[in-house]
Sequence to fold (233 residues):
Amino acid sequence: MTLLVQAASGPSCYSRLTNDWICGQYLHDRQSELVDATTQHIWITVVSVLAGVAIAFPLALAARRFPRLESTILGISTGIYTIPSLALFPLLVPFTGLTPTTVVIGLALYALTILVRAMLEGLRAVPAEVRESATGLGYGPSKLLFLIELPLALPVIMAGLRVATVSTVALTTVGSLVAYGGLGNLIKDGVNTNFRAELLAAAVLCVLLAVVLDILIVIAQRLLTPWTRGAQE
Fold:
């Protein structure tokens, strides 16, 4: 009976006979698949960016503390970005295997190009007189860094974080090379099989994810730097 009803109503909007770009039925039928891919995409992106921040911060501090190392640190972090992702991920596979770790390491290394420069420029933008005043008030190096310099450098750092996050969302799709690309897996499958509904749905979700994460970072910046609101308004 069910087959007769389906035959009478015609083929599904994402069947090979129709293969529509926009298909609500596909979103309903493959909801769990889309949710799983989106969840994996978010997880890989967030972990990669956090790993990039953890690596970039000490590198930026070292570049500021030791001027002779600055060109080397910036050169290496920038040089990594010139390696095509199609080559970098396979190069990591012998060491990390076909695992999410391969994608996370690759994306974290790519994020260094933006994050190291943003952190370095942010710290350098702190006025020298502010540092001198804080030192005169008895602030040691650690307190000076975390209580004075970092808060004042946050606007520049957060701007770099926004760019790094959005670019990481896009690059995560390339993780489909090792089967861990989140929505990239669906995009790849949609291209290989000419499955239009799958391809469009995954691409739109990827764009929406980038927009949502960018908005969240902007909100976080406003909460962490309330003193900048008056200047912006």
